[in-house]
Amino acid sequence: xxxxxxxxxxxxxxxxxxxxxxxxxxxxxxxxxxxxxxxxxxxxxxxxxxxxxxxxxxxxxxxxxxxxxxxxxxxxxxxxxxxxxxxxxxxxxxxxxxxxxxxxxxxxxxxxxxxxxxxx
Length: 120
Fold this sequence. Notes:
alpha+beta; 2 domains; two-stranded antiparallel sheet; two-stranded antiparallel ribbon; 5 helices; elongated
């Protein structure tokens, strides 16, 4: 992934409003009233490539958590990355076993079935 770097030229994004804005705000005061009330209709018209020194990797489902990856942990297609992290943390806590007993190489009496290698 790459971080986005704005070129600081004041044109990294474009702003679009509705075609009938002159009817909605025929005067400057009407325009300001719409802005103050939070009713001025706008759409972010995406990034303007000319205003970016480097465009970052767009965040989307395909590069954050695919359905196939979520399914590896038994999660559904609506799983979030946070839910995946939790599933992985839960799995790793079940896999890591520790204790104070002497271990016999190649043998385990633990529920996980982990086989230990003893290095000397």
